[in-house]
Amino acid sequence: MLPEFPYITRFAAISGGHGGNRRTRQMASLFADIGVELADLSSYAHSPATELTSALFSADQDFDSLYDFNGHIASQLGLDKALSKAVGLADIKGAVVDDPVFFPLTVKVLAERKIPVVSVIHNIESFLPRSLQVKAQWDLLQEEVDVVANSALCVTIAREDAWLLRNMGAECYNYPYFPSEDNEAQLAKIRIARRKSKKKFCLCMGTAYNPPTLFGMEKLVNNWSTITGGNLPLVLAGYGVDRFFDRENAPKAVNVVGGVDDVRMEALLTECSVCVLHQDVGAGALTKIPELLRAGIPVISSQHAARSYGGHDGVYEYQGMTEIPQLLMQVMQRDCAPPSLLKTDSNQLLNHVAGVFKL
User: Is the pTM of this model over 0.90?
Assistant: First the structure.
């Protein structure tokens, strides 16, 4: 038996540190403010659906082997298949669907039953290249637009995504990511500690299992000594970094620390002078940049990685890596921490959701 308002998501909305988890917790907390208690269905019983076809699958065998990518996709589509059968019979008032491109069957069944769906998008999935297979990305974009079109409302955290989907006929509301209360308290603590820290190195952090993040890290590491003259240390940290970067053979100015616990990460964020983020492809640093600014850490970012935050005080964008030294000088000359982003008022979004669910 399903609850009145199922939360159909790939990520647990209760615990965990993945960007998707942070966003799902934010949404679950937000919707509770209007009496919508979302029931997380990410652990609903299912089997991999290897028989289904989807542009989500990768045809690149090396890419698939590296990440077990297609196995992951088959599992997600199996969850969709199981949930589509469940919602076809359930007495529910509405549903919130996280990253709906992974749940096309479920969203279709809900739409056919005239059950209102609010879709929540971390980023348009076709913006995440599967080993740079451009044709597959176009096919996936079509699939994603089709499933979003079956939603009564689509909530995005990136303004560019809302702009694109509106132009394709979807009803969208842009609600930028902001750290949860617990996370915000930790970031505020770091911001205070940074007032007296020595700020001895640059930090590059991210999940290396995310292909665009890995590609960006590799390019930054390979060019760092040439860009900076080899005199400025770069610390490389994050989940999966140990797997893809060799500590012993890293360039002299690059210190590969890899995955670290919360205590060590807090120390790195307190002591770094700046965080450098590089992406040439991918969805951008949509959750990382707000958190870094909340912690009082300036961000030097490729224009691609900085999307949705270009022009914000504390975000220093570059189009080419040769611009990084000049931006580093600007950061070093700054005598105060960058201002934190303001949290977006949730009342308008909640009014939209209440209207969709007829509350």
Answer: no
Tokens 């960058």 map to which residue?
A: 338
Half-sphere exposure of 78 (CA within 13 A, CB side): 15
Measured distance CA(273)–CA(138) in Å, rounded: 39
Contact 202, 272 (CB under 8 A): yes
pLDDT tens, position by position, 292-303 = 999 999 999 999
| Crossing angle of helices 347-357 and 19-32, rounded to 10° | 70
C-alpha to C-alpha distance for 337 and 194, rounded to whole angstroms: 9
Distance CA 101, CA 123 (A): 11
Structure confidence by residue, pLDDT tens digits, 166-184: 999 999 999 998 887 778 8
Establish how many alpha carbons lie within 13 A of residue 100's alpha carbon, considering only the half-sphere containing its beta carbon. Answer: 32
**CA 115/CA 34 separation, integer angstroms:** 18
Amino acid letter, 112: E
